[in-house]
Amino acid sequence: MHRTGELYGHYQTLEQQKDSATLGMWIFLATEILFFGGLFLTYTINRHTYAQVFAFSSRTIDLKWGAINTVVLIGSSLTMAMSVWSAQVGKKKLVTLFLILTLALGSVFLGVKAVEYHAKYVEHHIPGAAFDLYYCTNNPAACNLSGKALENEKTELDDLTTKAGGPTAVNAHSQLFFSLYFGMTGLHAVHMIVGAGLLVWLILQSIKGRFTPEYNTPVENIGLYWHFVDIVWIYLFPLLYLIDRH
Asked: I need a surface site. Which of 132, 146, 176, 207 has the fewest CB within 10 A?
């Protein structure tokens, strides 16, 4: 395909090329909204149907890690926005710096998520044959559960078992919660990994001095993608971690 500098042959100006690319990104993000929207709807329906089991299962997730990741992603949105601004005003060194900071914060997010997933593995909260919502109350030392926290969890779980119709029903409904939890946060993490790959490419291009006030479309469009991923987490955090936390 014919190309003159950063302008491809089927466009007349860089502005026209940018408008076309931006429209394409917004259409892509619209399909992503539909995709995540189906998962959010599925979660909402099941949370309403199995409210008590979902609430208890939600409280087994460590709020601290979720809060840390929320702060990390908000910070990454700021650094991504700063990289876009830096490209628009021609501050090439700052573009690279802010892109590296964004990548670093995204990596921290994924690292924290790995810690959370490992904790669920230790607690036998991974959906499957080994799943057992009662594991921590029966093996408190393995889950670092003791004192008042252990007593409260036993009391609540006993009450939940009575209301839900036995441990089999509780485990089945809780597995549904964790299936949605891992599905939604796992899909979000995949988007983060894709975003990290795109950031690596941007950083390499930025080091070469490719982005200028006249041409910064890739930075802006990948910035839109990154902000979208951050916004999805802003919805996931209260939905999975905060509802019925008391």
From this structure: 146
